[in-house]
Amino acid sequence: MQNNNRGQFYLFSKRRFLPFFITQFLGALNDNLFKNALLVIVVSTAVASADTNTNFITNLAAGLFILPFFLFSTMAGRFADRFDKAFLIRRIKFAEIIIMLIGCFSLWQANINLMLVVLFLLGVQSAFFGPLKYAIIPQHVGDTELLAANAQVGMGTFVSILSGTLIGGWLVTSTQGPMLLGALTILVAIVGWLSSCQIPNAPPEKTMNKFPSTFNPIHETAYNFNLAKQNKTVIYCIFSSSWFWLYGACFLTQVPNFSVTILGGDPKLISILLGAFIIGVAVGALCCNRLSRGQVEPGLVPIGALGLSLFAIDLYFSSTAYAAINTVGNSVLPATFLTMSSGLRILADLLFIGLFGGLFIVPIITMIQRNTDRISRARVLSVNNIFNAVFMVSGSLLGMLFLSKLGWSIPQFFLLLAILNLAYMATIFYLEPVFIQRFKHWANLKPSNNSH
């Protein structure tokens, strides 16, 4: 059994976890460093040249990064179940060094087309790393450590997103910024590869040697989906995980425009609001282990789902109240924003949306790991990655429909997401009662060994 007196971060003292954590953290950091630098360069180029279609390139960049998850997730899951996972991670991280060398050249040349190619390659790398990321954890940590490990990986992922967003956007606009950023991404890739070399081996099950030599992506995707459907809890967790990424992606996408057009903030306010949201997710992820008392606790999922909606609803009302009293205009500085009660309320709403999102997603991922056969875990996780990508694209289409075509305001869109979240998750909880059952156990402090 796990000793509950252990510190929250005691796994960082273990070679079976720390090198992997550093590897995945630096990989996510590099993705976001380059992606956000590209977006800043596109916007800057648009200011200097009327020929640059900013909206087209921005959406193309998002699509190019997500596309590999549709194309390669099935193959990635197959490889992850068939070969040593640590070996594959080392090869993927070495490929990242080559990709970032090309990326550095594209930044130096200010070649947006080549940058888009690099972004696609980073998406390919992420698609292959995704199933490995969560399939290797159960091989290296005990059952009672699994939730804590996932919480720390979740925390690290969102901290790396925030760091990459802020550093990438800031560094590329500084003197010699593109060259400095290119050098930084190469350095991060090298350190990530060196760290991956310290990850202990994670060999496949012997039965994996019986894989057919031929590969049909359509048939195998269908086969993997059937693997996921064998356990009702797993498939509903996949649908819940994918909904979380739709919900979170919608907020992350709209916050910059929300900050400028609704709140009248200057560009620095965007960083503060994004920071509140992402820090909230990281804190929520870390809270999972303590709130669940070291167990895999599905009962936290309804709490997370309810919080996601309640604070999004309040964000609608707080932003409406802010607009009614904002007398500054369209250049609200962060210092001014933070002196306004409605401004602090908006900041708190975003922080708590993130926090409850963290409480929501960590148990979901852990339940997928725990309820999946170890010989097919990576392939089931590849199904999760495909659905995540489908839902995120659907979220983008939803935003385009309501914000662009129907002319809704961003606060109205946030309110719609909150209502849809209540309806969607209520349906999930009805179809898979374990979430509500475990919530009742958790709320009554009744210990149970059945952690699903």
Describe, in plain words, how this protein is organized in 3D.
This protein has 452 residues and is mainly α. The chain folds into two domains: 14-207, MFS general substrate transporter like domains (Growth Hormone, Chain: A), CATH 1.20.1250.20; 229-444, MFS general substrate transporter like domains (Growth Hormone, Chain: A, Up-down Bundle). It has helices spanning 18-48, 54-82, 85-109, 112-140, 146-171, 177-196, 217-229, 232-262, 267-291, 300-325, 334-337, 341-370, 377-405, 410-431, 434-443. The two termini are 17 Å apart. The model is unreliable at 1-5 and 446-452 (pLDDT under 50).
Supply the helix-strand structural class. Answer: mainly alpha
What's the CATH superfamily of the largest domain, by name?
MFS general substrate transporter like domains
- Supply the number of helical segments: 15
CATH architecture assignment of the largest domain: Up-down Bundle
Mean of all residue-level pLDDT scores: 87
What is Rg? Answer: 22 Å
**Which oligomerization state do the chains in this entry correspond to?**
single chain
Low-confidence stretches: 1-5, 446-452
Helix content: over 70%
The main pleated sheet reads as: none
- Can you tell me the CATH class of the largest domain? Mainly Alpha
Give the termini distance in whole angstroms.
Answer: 17 Å
Kindly report the CATH topology of the largest domain.
Growth Hormone, Chain: A
The count of strands amounts to 0
